[in-house]
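Here is an idea for our session: we take a single protein and study its fold together. To get us started, please write out a protein record for me. Start from the sequence, derive the backbone structure tokens from it, and show both lines together. Go ahead whenever you are ready, and we will take it from there:
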Amino acid sequence: MKHRNLLTTLALGTILAASATPVLADSCGDGAKASHASATATTTIFKTAEQAGFTTLVAAVKAAGLEDVLNGKGPFTVFAPTDEAFAKLPAGTVESLLKDPAALKSILLYHVVSGEVLAADVVKLSEAATVNGQKVAIDATKGVRVNGASVVKADVKASNGVIHVIDTVLLPKN
């Protein structure tokens, strides 16, 4: 809770910014506001995340200097961690990352896949190459999981791609 308040302050101050399978939750849960589902495909991935209340993710994107990328042409697929997913990281991790833009950028790009990969396609994959150069494992046997993180909302469309909301921050190998 302490680091979430800090991040909210940072976001407001100076720094930044689901499978069609029936096993996925129908709401964003974990801190993403209900407006998430109503975001139209006329807004970018970044603006959609901002409007949906992904406070920590938006702040991290801004701190890493990736706002223009996620507002860019795309298309991209973003596995977007909720605020609660960031809160599950060890104490001090988020604050440390906000002070290390290079490490933060690497982690955030580990959540991005080039191209628009909708839920119907994700469930057919066993892995996907991320923009940071590493692959994530995909398991669709019981819901959809990306490196063990559950997709809690899929196919949130944006003008430059799609967002799949996840419940855990994905951490790349060094």
About this structure: The longest strand covers residues 149-158. Residues 1-40 have pLDDT under 50 and may be disordered. The chain has one domain: 2-166. Residues 2-166 form a domain with the FAS1 domain fold (CATH 2.30.180.10).
